[in-house]
Amino acid sequence: MTENLLLAFGLTLFAGLATGIGSLLAFFTSHTNTKFLSVTLGFSAGVMIYVSMVEIFVKAKVALVDSLGVVQGNWLTVGGFFGGMVLIAAIDKFIPKQSNPHELKTVEDMNQPGIIDGKKPDLLKMGTFTALAIGIHNFPEGIATFTSALQDPALGIAIAVAIAIHNIPEGIAVSVPVYFATGDKKKAFKLSFLSGLSEPIGALVAYLFLMPFLNDIMFGIIFAAVAGIMVFISLDELLPAAKRYDETHLSIYGLIAGMAVMALSLLLFI
């Protein structure tokens, strides 16, 4: 159990701090590799959708049906699934559009002209609010990664990798406006890095407040909600972002590859 706890916290930390990778990409590359981003975002969506519908939803259903019976268990599974979607949609709803972490930024945005006296307060404010928005948005993702890894380490690794991939563009979304406003790479990286800490904080909250109640019913509800959250993120964020970076059909190829890799990894662990 202790080993699983350490792994779960470690995976959540890894997934969250991938925002820092996005920040570093913005600082040390001269252009945005849109093909790479399109494929990887599609891949991440494929992993999330496949594992949510084929593995997590099914585990939630089995746990709830075994505990509550066929009728109540099925209804609660479906309720938890759509409840997770409502939760993440509500979080997105209250994030201002201009600060939304999924408004795409590219490395080229670093080089836009027009910095006045080395400062642009509006851009600094936008970058700061984007960091805050990512922190709020990623909190439930931390709970999802932690609880999944705790129950099934192999599943937790797959989810952590998928979330880490989708956090890379979010790191760019924070660092670009902050650097553009201040010219300070350290400040831009720091804000980007800190925005990812909400995921391990989510894991800590899950450990402190959910662990004491983590019986089969609670586990089933959480897993159903996690499935809903990840499907919503994939359809609302990852796939649209992948298509916007896309030039051909790379995002769909990435999606199919993500599903195939996830399917193969699940088969290997049977």
Question: What's a quick, concise take on this entry?
Answer:
By secondary structure, the chain is mainly alpha-helical. The protein is 81% helix and 0% strand.
What are its keywords?
globular; single chain; mainly alpha; 270 residues
Question: Could you explain the architecture of this structure?
Answer:
With 270 residues, this protein is mainly alpha-helical. The chain has one domain (2-268). The protein contains 10 helices and no strands. The protein has helices spanning 2-16, 18-28, 34-68, 70-93, 121-151, 153-182, 185-195, 198-210, 216-245, 250-268. Helix 1 packs antiparallel against helix 5 (121-151), helix 5 packs across helix 8 and helix 6 packs antiparallel against helix 7 (185-195). The radius of gyration is 19 Å and the shape is globular.
